[in-house]
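Async update (no meeting this week)

Hi team, since we skipped the sync, here's where things stand on the single-chain job. The sequence we agreed to prioritize is pasted below, unchanged from the tracker. I ran it this morning and attached the output directly underneath so nobody has to dig for it. Comments welcome in thread, and please keep replies under the output.
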Amino acid sequence: MNAVFEQLRRHERALLVSCGLLLLFGFLYALTVSPQAAARMGYESTFNLALRHGALALVGALAIVGVSFLPPVAVRRGGVILLVGALAMLAVVLIVGHEAKGAQRWLRVAGLSMQPSEFVKPALVIAMAWMLASGVTQRNFPGVALACGLYGITAALLVPQPDYGQTALLALVLGAMLIAAGAPWRFFAGGALIASAGGLLAYNFVSHVRSRIDLFFSAENKGFQVTKALEAIQNGGPLGRGPGEGTVKVSLPDAHADFVYAAATEEFGWLASLGFIGLYAAIAWFGLRRASRLVDPFQQFAASGLIMLFTLQAAIHVAVNMSMAPAKGITLPLVSYGGSAMIGSALTIGLAFALLRERSGAFLHDRTQA
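Output:
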């Protein structure tokens, strides 16, 4: 046990505390939303969802701590192995996946549902970081091209599901990693052209994409869920209506998942929601600052990419809830209900911790000088 605490001491405390508070808040809010959500989902027990979420939060916490002890070489190898497995599962999803709400994104095994895209995200970041680092350290190695190729393969499996939200999120993370790696601007220009062409094709030929974009730009009709989310945020006021006193969550189908930020703001208020955002901002600040001091290029690219993945997902979730971005079906890391989402988020931040952990010779200068 002493060895475990000694290892934890080598982590950035602000990151650990922020993640712990996110897990705790997610469970507390699950308690307040559980009666309504459990009834909609057909659970017999009123607090079934809260108990499930509590168990998932515990598994997530253990996953974060356990994965954070991995050495960098295990992170790289494990990430590549996970990517191969996750891509294979994404291919299987397109053939025999379970369909819900117009999307085919889940695999059902022994009565349990799993969303492979949640696991492919951190694995892809690690694999792309390896390619980019190899391009930096090895002359004539096409690291940037290979990283973009890995993203292209993943996108080709995500788009048919369809899952445009995760595809866009991973594109943003790849862009940030390319900037960090000093990639030539022609890759950004090419990526922008491909993204623009893909967006136009999706708008013209995919009805639900066109509908969501039209609703986003509409001044009168934002769609049912986004309208309810805005109503919840407005009802919250500075201090909120009180835990369990929210009314919008009764009619908001995804109040426990894709719109958990809005539903929670109604009960806990704007001030609490700003503090909530502050936790993700702290993870971004301390994580990226620490990553910038890593000596090894792979560790630097992978750690910063994982932190960007984690915090950009949170930013998109909040933006959708506040009608600042089209609805995408993006969960809030470590807070939203869902087994795949919880474990995927835990793996993402746990792998980042493994690379950011204090180790001899890992950083440019001593921690006390940061």
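Quick observations from my side:
The radius of gyration is 20 Å.
Residues 10-359 form one domain.
Reply here if anything looks off.
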